[in-house]
Design a protein that fits this description.
- This protein has 208 residues and is of the alpha/beta class.
- It has one domain (3-20, 27-193): Vaccinia Virus protein VP39 (Rossmann fold), CATH 3.40.50.150.
- The protein is 30% helix and 24% strand.
- It has 7 helices and 7 strands; from the N terminus they run H-H-E-H-E-H-E-E-H-H-E-H-E-E.
- A 7-stranded mixed beta sheet has the order 3-2-1-4-5-7-6.
- The longest helix is centred in the middle third of the chain and has 14 residues, at 78-91.
- The termini are far apart.
């Protein structure tokens, strides 16, 4: 994957032409993703779902069609969020669309129950030898309430990388086949925010 994928300038220029082609889903469309995704979504359909790096994906629209009433789509490219606003109107659903960089946007700490990423983490891993990927995880972990989930959909099983993070997660990964498109296998990582482990007790020193 090219380093350009972690640059706003690249995406802003790309969307100038791509928005004319309408919606486009990277990796998996909702038809392939729904079965693996649904068990990790909030039981309350009125709970907010934050879809980060939405691009021109129809995922937010399809979730809204499934009667989820509080979908917020976020992308750092204004052309993408403008296009998503228009697409939502065309499909007759209500979405909130926000232009922001998720690594720096203001997210209220410990309040979110579900955040979905399909490709954004992968894109950030292409920059600065992958260190930008860590810059995505920390603010999202901070934004989640205990028990809240960050769902990362990637072209690669990222379990080992995620386990190396100092952040307190319970990690579940499921392979998902893109049956309706390429037939390739992708990976859904459900990261549940948990309490950090207690600090280790210092070893007692025996007196001589």
């Amino acid at each position: 994957m090219s380093v350009k994928y972690c640059n706003l300038e690249y995406w802003s220029a790309r969307y100038l032409t791509e928005v004319q082609g309408g919606a486009y889903d990277w990796y998996l469309d909702y038809t392939d993703l729904k079965e693996a995704l649904e068990p990790h979504l909030p039981e309350d359909k009125a709970a907010e779902i934050l879809y980060i790096g939405c691009g021109l994906s129809t995922l937010g629209i399809e979730l809204a069609k499934d009667e989820r009433t509080a979908i917020t789509c976020v992308d750092w490219a204004q052309k993408a969020t403008e296009a998503m606003t228009s697409l939502a109107t065309e499909h007759g659903v209500k979405l909130t669309c926000q232009t922001a960089d998720v690594t720096t946007m203001e997210l209220t700490a410990a309040t979110h129950t579900c955040i979905i990423d399909k490709g954004l983490f992968d894109a950030h891993l292409t920059g600065d030898q992958g260190t930008k990927g860590a810059g995505v995880l920390a603010p999202l972990h901070n934004a989640l309430a205990l028990g809240g989930k960050l769902i990362i959909i990637s072209h690669t099983d990222r379990t080992s990388m995620l386990q190396e993070s100092p952040l307190s997660w319970q990690i579940d990964v499921s392979p998902v086949e893109a049956k309706s498109r390429t037939g390739r296998t992708y990976y859904l990582h459900a990261l549940t925010k948990v309490d950090p482990p207690p600090p280790e007790e210092p070893e007692a020193v025996e007196e001589k």
